[in-house]
Specification:
The complex is a heterodimer. Chain A is built from 7 helices and 2 strands, in the order H-H-H-H-H-H-E-E-H. By secondary structure, chain A is mainly alpha-helical. Chain A has one domain: Four Helix Bundle (Hemerythrin (Met), subunit A) (Up-down Bundle). In chain A, helix 3 runs antiparallel to helix 4. The N and C termini of chain A lie far apart (about 65 Å). In chain A, about 35% of the residues are buried. Chain B has one domain. The longest helix of chain B is centred in the middle third of the chain and has 31 residues. Chain B is globular, with a radius of gyration of 18 Å. Chains A and B meet through helix 4 and helix 5 of A and helix 6, helix 7 and helix 10 of B.
Chain lengths: ~240, ~220
């Protein structure tokens, strides 16, 4: 518990530093104040990729080792991945409305594949929710978590595969197209959001462990009662 | 008994059950044709040539209703039958392959009939060479959808909400198949090559086959 609190405090300080840098960084001439959305949009979607990657790692490791902590890692990461990707998509929509003149464009491959990726993990979370037995839940969701990760590279490389509205990556192995001050602000925010993700993940994993220890996952009401089959009762 | 032989046997039993029940052709197929009609009735008046949307409607209906066809066996299978198959010592990979093959046969025929219905209802303008390309896309999309449905059916086996959960699991994962299959005809119409889309479909199918066979054992354990 103490470690989670310390991590949350560090993450809060890092986010404050990131916000300060985002506020002081120069603005794009055309985008104006909307440039600042970049410091939330990019880090949140980067965290979403990281989270879904961790879900796959946790799933594969659970299938190999059968240790419950890997399942907790996969589940916690998936929940946070969905949360961060929704925030990322929302900030992207606000930016798109202001700069492109439209919040959503179905012909854009990045937007469409991101939306699909979110639904893949909503399905993963629905499967977890539907399975009451913790061991069954872990085994089933580990298989789905292993399959689901194929969407992540599809989303990341969609801007390279289909040349549509969304711009390609600004930071590439051969250099960057960004102003140095903006780049520093962006990288600090990526680090800060990463720390926030780690803190939240640690907290979620702790809560799941406590829930399991408390036996919070029980059968639905009615499942413990088996009435006699009326068709089999003979009339007296 | 070899793995291949076991797969064929599983497939044969599934198809035999389907022949006796006839759910696919007596229920799902008419339902899918009605859905195509509803789509055409719901189109805005700005769509002057209904043939323009025929192919898109066909793929949307074929994939969505194809899920029902492919999932039918998994969703109706009882725990007793599942246990019996396991006690018989059937190879889990053969079970996966066999069920996928049966679903593939049903889906290919289902989509083929639906294609004819679409041509009759929408009268689309089809480019030269459309038939072979569309049949190829149908076969590859059917194979992918069949394997995906078997995987989703297994992970949701025995759950009380499996009939709604399994389609939710499949629908977003089926996107590479929808993109690949629908782009084949569009590329021909534009005069572009279709190889990239065929490769996308083959890659998706191979990935699903690898995952399905590789995870067959944990999949069987998970569905217990």
């Amino acid at each position: 518990m103490k470690r989670v609190q310390i991590m949350l405090l560090i993450a809060a300080l890092a986010l404050a530093a990131g916000a300060l840098l985002a506020y002081s960084a120069p603005l794009d001439r055309l985008q104006g104040e909307f440039t600042r959305l970049l410091y939330v949009h990019v880090p949140t979607l980067w965290i979403a990729f990281l989270a879904f990657g961790l879900t796959a790692l946790g799933s594969v490791m659970y299938l190999i080792r059968k240790k419950e902590r890997w399942d907790r890692l996969a589940a916690g990461s998936a929940e946070l991945g969905v949360l961060f990707s929704v925030v990322g998509v929302f900030t992207g929509m606000v930016w798109g409305q202001a700069v492109w003149g439209q919040a959503w464009d179905w012909s854009d491959a990045r937007l469409a594949t991101t939306a699909v990726m979110i639904f893949v993990y909503i399905g993963y979370l629905a499967l977890r929710q539907a399975t009451a037995d913790p061991e069954k839940r872990a085994r089933r969701s580990a298989i789905l978590g292993t399959i689901a990760v194929v969407q992540v590279p599809l989303v990341y490389f969609s801007v390279n595969l289909w040349r549509t509205l969304h711009q390609t990556q600004s930071i590439r192995p051969d250099g960057t197209t960004m102003d140095p001050e903006m780049l520093v602000a962006l990288l600090v925010n990526v680090g800060a959001f990463s720390l926030a993700f780690i803190a939240l993940l640690m907290g979620r994993m702790l809560v799941t462990r406590l829930e399991l220890a408390a036996g919070a996952d029980t059968e639905l009401a009615g499942d413990t009662v088996s009435p006699p089959r009326l068709s089999e009762i003979e009339d007296v | 008994m070899s793995l291949w032989r076991q797969s064929l046997e599983v497939s044969r039993v599934d198809l035999l059950v389907e022949r006796r029940l006839g759910d696919t052709y007596r229920i799902v197929l008419p339902f899918a044709v009605v859905a195509m009609m509803i789509f055409s009735l719901a189109l805005p008046s700005s769509v002057t040539d209904i043939g323009d949307v025929g192919v898109a409607v066909f793929w949307a209906v074929a994939i969505l209703y194809g899920m029902q066809v492919a999932l039918r066996t998994s969703l109706t299978e009882t725990q007793q039958r599942r246990d019996t198959v396991m006690l018989l010592g059937l190879d889990p990979a053969a079970r996966f392959a066999g069920r996928s093959m049966a679903a593939f046969v049903l889906l290919s025929a289902f989509m083929g009939i639906l294609l004819v219905a679409m041509i009759l209802l929408f009268s689309p303008e089809l480019p030269r060479g459309w038939l072979i390309a569309t049949l190829g896309a149908i076969l590859l999309a059917s194979a992918g959808l069949a394997m995906l449905a078997v995987l989703a059916g297994e992970v949701s086996a025995g759950l009380r909400n499996r009939s709604t959960l399994a389609p939710l699991i499949i629908a977003p994962l089926v996107v590479p198949l929808v993109i690949g299959a629908s782009q084949v005809l569009e590329s021909i119409a534009r005069g572009d090559g279709i190889l990239v889309w065929i490769l996308l479909l083959i890659t998706a199918d191979l990935a699903l086959l690898t995952v399905g066979v590789g995870l067959a054992k944990p999949l069987e354990e998970a569905s217990r």
